[in-house]
């Protein structure tokens, strides 16, 4: 018996079907690590939950560390202050650096207008107050200048410590506090205008829900020029690889007929593929090397994970308002993996433009996704079937 190699709900160790995206990340890391360039345009990968944003961001972090970079990871909505989290994590990542470098970073943090405890051996701990949100859209928020100075020194220090650069990772960026997002955006932007030779090698990679661009634009209008990349569902080939590769490493196979049924059932959703793989593995008795996942195992797995998916479907339905539920029911009744906004409006006997507010709220809630120009789909497979069944009951 072997433990399951599938990881539903956890960070995946490999990312089949994401080779193109990883190659783009590698190119940016090469600019920073090999050519010692400052990568000024942050990249934000956006997608609904369950598509693999965090797993991909974690893989890029491993790539950056393999290239000798200092990495800092934070998630929006943590302590309440994005800037405080970034500085605290950077302080933790530099514990082994020279005392003079850490003392200088400590002094810069102490003068800043964000609240963070900074500890340096032999130096007293210091705290400063969080900056109040700025009101004018074009004004620079309090604390941005201090944050720029702090980042500039940290990036420069990576060179003195013989590291290839500084890379910041921000997960769930849409949940970060607006004041922190504004200070971060302005602080990062200001790095590009430093006097002298310019900023040291550094880069920013982030991930968030489809409303991330709106959250960032509300914090600083110029962030509309940042690099937002939608992360789609897996192709048939990638879905097959997501099931086959983990099993192959343990000497276990999937039959072609089994794979076809499993891939059709999952519809390219990474979370569902991991659920299905894990349940099929257990249905096969946690096979030893030489074992096979059979069609019967896959059918059993579908029945097992139906409960998990039903719970998820029910939670998403309950998260919608009555008006939004009407919108969702119309999508389900139309059917298909992708429906047009015009079809929804026609079914509800309303003008297409009147759907905008419900559409945006459902996207922010992660219940629907954009599948093309003027087209929408659900963010988890089987949701349409669930709604049609619910309506019949």
Automatic annotation (TrEMBL):
Record's keyword annotation contains ATP-binding: yes
Residue ranges annotated for the Orc1-like AAA ATPase domain, each copy included: 15-185
Keyword ATP-binding belongs to the record: yes
Record-linked Pfam families: AAA_16
Membrane spanning stretches: none
Top-rank taxon, per record: Bacteria
InterPro entries: AAA_16, P-loop_NTPase
Record-level Gene Ontology MF annotations: ATP binding
Keyword entries, A-Z: ATP-binding, Nucleotide-binding
Official protein name in the record: ATP-binding protein
The species this protein was found in: Leekyejoonella antrihumi
